[in-house]
Each structure stands twice: as C-alpha cells, then as structure tokens.
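Per reviewer request, we include the raw input and output of the structure prediction for the construct analysed in the revised manuscript.
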Amino acid sequence: MFESSHFFFSLLILTFLAAGLVKGVTGMGLPTVAVGLLSVVMPPAAAAAMLVIPSFVTNVWQWLAGPDTSGLLRRLWPMMASIVLGTVAGAALLVRVDPLWSGLALGIALLVYASYALVSPALSIPACVEPWLSPIVGLVTGAVTGATGVFVMPAVPYLQALGLDKDELVQALGLSFTVSTVALAAGLLMHGAFRLDQLGLSALVIVPALAGMWLGQKIRARISPRRFRQFFLLFLGLLGLELVSRPFF
C-alpha cells in the first residue's frame, strides 16, 4: 500500500512538473499534458477534476507576471466579457454533447491552422477591426469551450494575430484562460456537472505545477521570437492531433 501511494504521489508530482514546464514555455498545455499522463492510472474524469485549481492558479500567475497587465486588460476586456457570456451559456452543451466528437472537429481545425501558419506568413488583424471582432471571437470561443471544455479556438489564433510579442502573447493567453476557467466552472456548477468536493486533491499539485511553470518561463526567456513561434505552432498541432485521436482510443 505504501509503495502504491508513493508511486501515485510521485507520478502526480512529475506529471504536473512536466505540464507546468510546457505551459511556462508556450503559455498553454497544462490540461492536455496532465490529463494525457494521468489517464494512464485513473479515469479521465478524475484526472480532469484535479486540474481545476492548478489550472486556475497557473493561469492567474501567467497573466499577472507579464509585462503589461492593465494594458492588456483594457485592450481585451470586450473579448473577455464575451467569453464569459458564451461559456456560461454554452456549458449546457458540455453536459449534453459528447465532447469526443466535438473535440474531433476542434482538433481538425487546430491541425489545419497550425499547418498553414507554420508554412505561411503570420496572420495579422488590422487595428481598425479589433473593437468589433474581439467580442465576436470571445462569443465563439465561449461556445466552443462550452461544447468541448477546451479554451483554444479561436482565441489562440486570434491573439497570435494581434501582433503581440512572445511575452505579451503568453500573458494574454493567461488572461483568456483564467476567464475561461472561471466561466466554465460557473457554467458547469449551474448545470449540476461540477462538484466542489472534487477540489481537495487538486490543491496538492499546485506547487509542482508552479515549479514547472517557473522553469518553463526561464527557458522561454532564452528562445528567439522566431523559435518561440515555431514551438508554439507545433504544440498547437500536437494539441489538435491529441483531440482528433480521442474518439479512437
């Protein structure tokens, strides 16, 4: 029993160190890495329940630790408000729709986008369209989050197209993911699909997640903007591949 418990807690620590490291470098990926590794030893639903607190804490840190917290909030608040509306309204879809198949469509979209962006010039959003496009992107992101529980589309490509530098992009992702995490938890709570008693073990993995994220941030500081963009898009492609493969494994 002792050996089993020792193995389990060692696996938790290593899993969230690895997940935090990926998030520190790219600005995302903690849920994907953690659930993928933990699902080897526990049901995916139990693994997902463990992500609530470390995901929230690391996202808040990612947002607040960036170079322009207040400036990004002023610029992106219409998008964030729309994410809340879309996610809370769309959370019912996550309860009723099989997320494996909605995730398949999302994964295909991610693969197409990442493949295109890797071989073409970076997309750019003109400043004149941002005031009306941001709320639309927020609403669509909220609806997708409600259907799949995944926060990345179309928010991540949109934020990347705003011309932010690598640290600003990671900070903007932290803000977007923080808002999405809170909105999704609220929406699921409203629909009876989230229980507060699932949070206990989740709190235990905050420290390794933060340690891994700190190390990842150190690595990101040494990566050139071009290399960061390549790494970022490759990870988006891997995330898409993981979503596409879920219904078949």
